[in-house]
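Example 9 (inverse folding). The structure is encoded as follows.
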């Protein structure tokens, strides 16, 4: 009997685990090496403020996780993962108009957008109806032959322009702001090409599969993936930092759930010059500055409907959100930053303790920002929820430097593992996508297609590339 192929995965984030699972499913013997004491990367949950309150450390809301073709194929519910859905996926409050609300139902959403309801259906309805048919292509390398070219073209017409251009399809502020807040997840000026892709994908994913949370915390996704990998015969070794190739065991293939620069540091001069330049010139983008808050009772939103939403975008009008994105990209801290707020306890009361609720909120700030954004975040919340400060019982701050210390892939506090410029969206970080220039070594982190998010698709596609290498070399 020939020995099984051996694979080492460096980094136990969602993509590293996904790569390990995809390889183990094909009979490859997988060992995951994780520097921290637990696996999970950006998919961890901890008691950051007070005992009994469960806060998601980084990723918290999962429209792409529940939409991911790979994660859906794993049936992680058998390993304890349970998706919970708030009544309203997303709320975007405005000062002078009713709150814009994103429901799983496209029609219910459109009905709440007044004069723009018909246009919302026209823009997002055709893609939502066929999203599952093209999700594998959207959540993968951009340069490849599509299985559904006409359906993908329909998405591309909406995704390719700047978000600011697509927003012109709407005449009212509610629809513009709702779409703009989704597009702002790109951490890019909304006037830049490709930013509409992020907004379209999140809106359509919300209409197709919703914006759920994982019961008990995002850690449940990690735990389910870990359970499956171990059932498939995989081994996970924590507390092990890989600093050079000398730290790697003998393997037929090695997967790196690391930043491009982190990979280059490990392999050093073994990396061909051209690939070394590609890895070293990988540019990291704006950062996250996060507050985890223990709050007594519900958030006192001026509009009670917001209290039914799992996610809240705090940025005001489309123009305000666009200004904030331009500022952070230029390295300036906005007076009113775009803030993402999660009240996961709305769908998942297990996160709370008595009348204390965990609130998750981060502002988009400049790369490696070393100031204090606490008041700016609280001001944005208080703007739409007067009296909120009075309900705060405890606070935990994660600055950009804190995020980098927590996860070396988050360079300068960039939780996306790379700036979403058009060049990097296409190349990520080279035309070879997951290949590194060293035979048998592959990059599988969020720096590869399709980018950031707890969806596992980076690891899945990288593993498929590695499996082709094994077939080619025997």
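The amino acid assigned to each position is listed next.
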């Amino acid at each position: 009997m020939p020995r099984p192929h051996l694979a080492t995965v460096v980094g136990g984030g969602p993509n590293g685990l996904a790569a390990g699972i995809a390889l183990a499913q094909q009979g490859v013997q997988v060992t995951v090496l994780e520097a921290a004491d637990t696996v999970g990367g950006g998919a961890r949950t901890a008691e950051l403020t007070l005992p009994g309150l469960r806060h998601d450390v980084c990723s918290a809301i999962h429209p792409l996780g529940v939409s991911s073709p790979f994660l859906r194929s794993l049936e992680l519910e058998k390993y304890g993962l349970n998706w919970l859905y708030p009544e309203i996926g997303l709320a975007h409050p405005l000062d002078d108009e009713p709150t814009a609300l994103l429901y799983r139902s496209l029609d219910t959403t459109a009905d709440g957008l007044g004069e723009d309801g018909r246009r919302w259906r026209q823009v997002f309805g055709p893609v939502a109806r066929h999203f599952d048919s093209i999700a594998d292509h959207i959540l993968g390398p951009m340069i490849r032959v599509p299985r559904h070219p006409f359906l993908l073209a329909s998405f591309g017409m909406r995704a390719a322009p700047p978000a600011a251009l697509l927003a012109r399809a709407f005449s009212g502020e509610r629809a513009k702001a709702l779409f703009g807040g989704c597009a702002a997840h790109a951490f890019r000026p909304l006037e830049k090409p490709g930013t509409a892709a992020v907004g379209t994908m999140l809106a359509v994913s919300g209409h197709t599969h919703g914006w759920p949370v994982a019961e008990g915390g995002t850690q449940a996704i990690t735990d389910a993936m870990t359970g499956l990998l171990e059932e498939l015969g995989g081994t996970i070794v924590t507390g092990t930092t890989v600093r050079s190739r000398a730290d790697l065991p003998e393997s037929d293939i090695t997967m790196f759930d690391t930043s491009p620069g982190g990979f280059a540091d490990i392999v050093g001069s073994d990396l061909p010059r051209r690939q070394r330049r590609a890895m070293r010139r990988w540019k990291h983008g704006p950062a996250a500055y996060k507050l985890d808050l223990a709050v007594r009772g519900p958030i006192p939103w001026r509009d009670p409907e917001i209290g039914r939403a799992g996610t809240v975008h705090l940025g005001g009008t489309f123009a305000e959100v666009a200004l904030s994105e331009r500022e952070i990209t230029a390295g300036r801290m906005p007076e009113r930053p775009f803030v993402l707020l999660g009240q996961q306890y709305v769908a998942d009361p297990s996160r709370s303790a008595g009348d204390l609720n965990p609130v998750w909120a981060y502002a988009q700030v400049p790369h490696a920002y070393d100031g204090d954004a606490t008041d700016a975040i609280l001001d944005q919340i208080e703007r739409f929820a007067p009296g909120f400060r009075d309900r705060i019982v405890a606070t935990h701050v994660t600055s950009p430097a804190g995020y980098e210390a927590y996860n070396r892939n988050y360079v300068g506090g960039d939780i996306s593992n790379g700036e979403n410029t058009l060049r990097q969206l296409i190349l990520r970080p080279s035309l070879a996508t997951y290949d590194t220039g060293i035979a048998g070594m592959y990059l599988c982190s969020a720096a590869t297609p399709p980018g950031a998010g707890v969806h596992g698709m980076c690891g899945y596609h990288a593993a498929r590339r590695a499996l082709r290498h094994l077939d080619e070399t025997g």
